[in-house]
Q: What sequence folds into this?
């Protein structure tokens, strides 16, 4: 009912600006020593996998790359049955990191691992 | 300030391939044979790493290595008296454990120092492929000019996959001491050349990225 949406415009416009609790990407630098893997990972010393945190807003802005299902689920939560949860804030795109590690037989291995850094978030 | 994680945060039986990979390579796991590499091989790989990735571990654009996996294999040398007068001849064997199925060999090179400054004179070195039977060895020459003193020789065609799928490569590291002979003792022994396997890991990490569903315009 576009009428009700029009009433909801102020909220919608406010959400455009995004609330600080909205789903977004957060930095978190960690060392392999903290992960207990520094015995055999030589480099990098630290890396920043980042993580997604926050509430998926009622109206999912275009830049969330949310699939249509998430938009529907958001409406269901809001208009039909609140026991259906809002979509979850999860990583959308990733990038790899390169790791230098020692192997069991004393060899040294350079390897690129995919999907090790979150680059953006989405609601799903 | 994060509370220190438990000593071995890895789960008993890690489920994720990355954890499995790390668990398999973790020291203390069965099969951990020799202590970690050190010295020149480690320095070489750290330089290779710095060329390929930034301080946060992100691969640099243009991927100077041309692949996502490079394994350094140290030689298991034999023969303990390599010096004879000015000559140094060290037979070296590189045993290739069967590579993980997902890792496809793109090329293999041997890295060595063709020239070494000594207190008295220089050490000039070369690599000789040990041919099977009585055939004479093949002198191997580097394809490109040495970088930071290191020369890299392509040995891809010579890798022998043994019947037990244990690959192996037999070389001789030959050096001659050029210049005024020093004191009575033999000059410093050059460090062993090492083998680099450039591999393409078709899984390269946690899981093959799922194809993102084509997003329809709302």
A:
């Amino acid at each position: 009912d576009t009428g009700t949406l029009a009433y909801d415009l102020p909220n919608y416009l406010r959400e455009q600006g995004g609330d600080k609790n909205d789903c977004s990407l957060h930095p978190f630098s960690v060392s392999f020593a903290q992960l207990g893997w520094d015995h055999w990972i030589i480099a990098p010393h630290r890396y920043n996998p980042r993580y997604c945190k926050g509430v998926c807003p009622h109206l999912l802005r275009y830049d969330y790359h949310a699939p249509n299902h998430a938009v529907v689920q958001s409406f269901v939560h809001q208009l039909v049955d609140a026991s259906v949860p809002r979509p979850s804030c999860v990583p959308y795109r990733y990038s790899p990191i390169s790791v230098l590690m020692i192997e069991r037989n004393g060899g040294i291995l350079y390897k690129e691992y995919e999907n090790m850094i979150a680059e953006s978030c989405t609601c799903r | 300030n994060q509370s220190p994680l438990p000593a071995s945060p890895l789960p008993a039986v890690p489920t994720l391939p990355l954890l499995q990979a790390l668990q398999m390579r973790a020291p203390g796991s069965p099969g951990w044979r020799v202590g970690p590499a050190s010295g020149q091989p480690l320095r070489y790989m750290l330089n290779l790493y710095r060329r390929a990735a930034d301080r946060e571990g992100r691969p640099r654009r243009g991927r100077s290595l041309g692949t996502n996996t490079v394994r350094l294999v140290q030689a298991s040398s034999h023969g303990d008296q390599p010096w004879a007068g000015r000559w140094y001849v060290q037979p070296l064997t590189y045993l290739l454990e069967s590579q993980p199925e997902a890792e496809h060999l793109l090329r293999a090179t041997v890295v060595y120092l063709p020239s070494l400054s000594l207190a008295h004179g220089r050490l000039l070195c070369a690599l000789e492929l040990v041919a099977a039977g009585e055939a004479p060895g093949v002198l191997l020459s580097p394809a490109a000019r040495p970088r930071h003193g290191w020369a890299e020789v392509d040995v891809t065609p010579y890798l022998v996959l043994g019947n037990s799928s244990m690959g192996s490569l037999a070389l001789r590291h030959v050096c001659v001491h050029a210049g005024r002979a020093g004191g009575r003792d033999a000059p410093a022994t050059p460090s062993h050349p090492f083998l680099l396997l450039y591999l393409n890991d078709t899984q390269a990490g946690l899981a093959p990225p799922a194809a993102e569903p084509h997003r329809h315009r709302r």
Notes: Helices of chain A lie at 2-7, 9-17, 68-80. The longest strand of chain A covers residues 108-123. The radius of gyration of chain A is 20 Å. Chain A has a mean pLDDT of 85.
